[in-house]
Amino acid sequence: MASLAQQFTGLRCPQLSSSRFSVKPKQTQKVGAFASPIVSAVAVSNAKTKDRLELKKMFEDAYERCRTAPMEGVAFTVKGTVFCTDGNGALVDITAKSSAYLPVQEASIHKIKHVEEVGIVPGLREEFMIIGENEADDSLFLSLRSIQYELAWERCRQLQAEDVVVKGKVVGANKGGVVALVEGLRGFVPFSQISSKSTAEELLDKELPLKFVEVDEEQSRLVFSNRKAMADSQAQLGIGSVVLGTVQSLKPYGAFIDIGGINGLLHVSQISHDRVSDIATVLQPGDTLKVMILSHDRERGRVSLSTKKLEPTPGDMIRNPTLVFEKAEEMAQTFRQRIAQAEAMARADMLRFQPESGLTLSSDGILGPLASDLPAEGLDLSDVPEAEEV
């Protein structure tokens, strides 16, 4: 590596900590009731000599490593310009005595067959990391993958701190879960952290919404949760939203439904307009169904669900659940419109007692100025019917 050291001048070895080589004074050992000054002086002199020899040896070893292997344990980068590519990599001009080579496997954090797939073409000027030397011709081996690898870990730490949902492509599996690719890094998703009951084969090559559970570059541990990501997205859904769920368990009072990491209760009274005496005749654990959110208490983590509100006609959930799921979004839209109308009526009723506001409500529940042909005392809402139960 002497030639390499000559090519790159100004390389410094890290300073050795002075505390590492501090010499502690030796205590004088007493003989009988008195300490011998001569024995003490000899002991201190021998100890200091030994420490000096050890210190000298450490400095000599450090100097030898810097002289013969300046890159060992020290990663550094150089600027270079690609001037030729082939099927195995690219030649890079780094303004040294000899050229440098970028192998295709070191060209990207992603698996590629040719360097041009990731934009490495003649004329490209980039910063490369030196990873080795070819002793036969003193040329260097370069890497972009190492730089991208460090940046990917930094990006994952940032995304974890921001607690965001990312997309990960499933690229493999084992008995404990699946392997997903995020930011070019392979991470693990345990089966216990996957919201659906899909098998590993069914998930292969699919993209999953994920949240970071653990990001540990030193241990090369990257762990994700699909359940947390789904729970985060479900938390954004409002009353009247239709979600896909899986029946987890049945109780005498209702069924617990997994809606992507959140357990919601489908009460027996909210299964159908017709009376359900035995829930097991309608639902079974593992069934997939569409449910509508009736309420969501985020502080207590409770979600109330309904299929009753999705029935086109009373009893459809018992007689023809497939029809209920086909019409779910349409029925939910009707439900939301009824809620909006009820809220508009409530707002209009409040304005009835505030004629000085000069505002009125349209049929769509939009607040606006009073029309000129309306009485100054406000609207007469005495004939407005009561909202029906929905």
From TrEMBL:
PROSITE patterns referenced in this protein's UniProt entry, alphabetically: S1
Signal peptide limits: none
Taxonomy, superkingdom: Eukaryota
InterPro entries in the record: NA-bd_OB-fold (IPR012340), Ribos_protein_bS1-like (IPR050437), S1_domain (IPR003029)
GO molecular function annotations of the record: mRNA binding; structural constituent of ribosome
Keyword set includes Ribosomal protein: yes
Keyword Ribosomal protein set for record: yes
Boundaries of every S1 motif domain copy: 75-145, 163-227, 240-308
Alphabetized UniProt keyword annotations: Ribonucleoprotein, Ribosomal protein
GO BP annotations, alphabetical order: translation
GO CC aspect terms: chloroplast stroma; ribonucleoprotein complex; ribosome
A Pfam family matched in the record: S1
Xref: SUPFAM superfamilies: Nucleic acid-binding proteins
Similarity field: Belongs to the bacterial ribosomal protein bS1 family.
Name recorded for this polypeptide: S1 motif domain-containing protein
Source organism of this protein record: Gossypium trilobum
